[in-house]
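[job 4471] stage=fold_predict status=RUNNING
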Amino acid sequence: MCIGSASAQQQIPFLPTELFICNYQDGNDMSDLQGVHEEFNEWADGAGVNSFTAYMLMPAFHSNELAADVIYMNIWNSGEAMGNGAATIAAGDGAAG
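[job 4471] inference complete, writing structure tokens
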């Protein structure tokens, strides 16, 4: 996925984006996800993974084909930042996931 905006005079910037379509496990809700999000944010800051922005999107309406509780979206500053961040996360001590 690519997100960007541009006028007729500028090139459209490419912002690599990840979407995770999620449903809560029984007994969990947004407060549980917020806790995991905060733990990951602390870990990412300490690991130097700070070149992205994360969003938690909740559907207002949905079809039966895509009934998600939340969509977790990461937008990276560049493809290089995404690759470096993914490598750091994969090599982490488990705190990231």
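[job 4471] summary: Strands lie at 17-22, 52-57, 70-76.
[job 4471] exit 0
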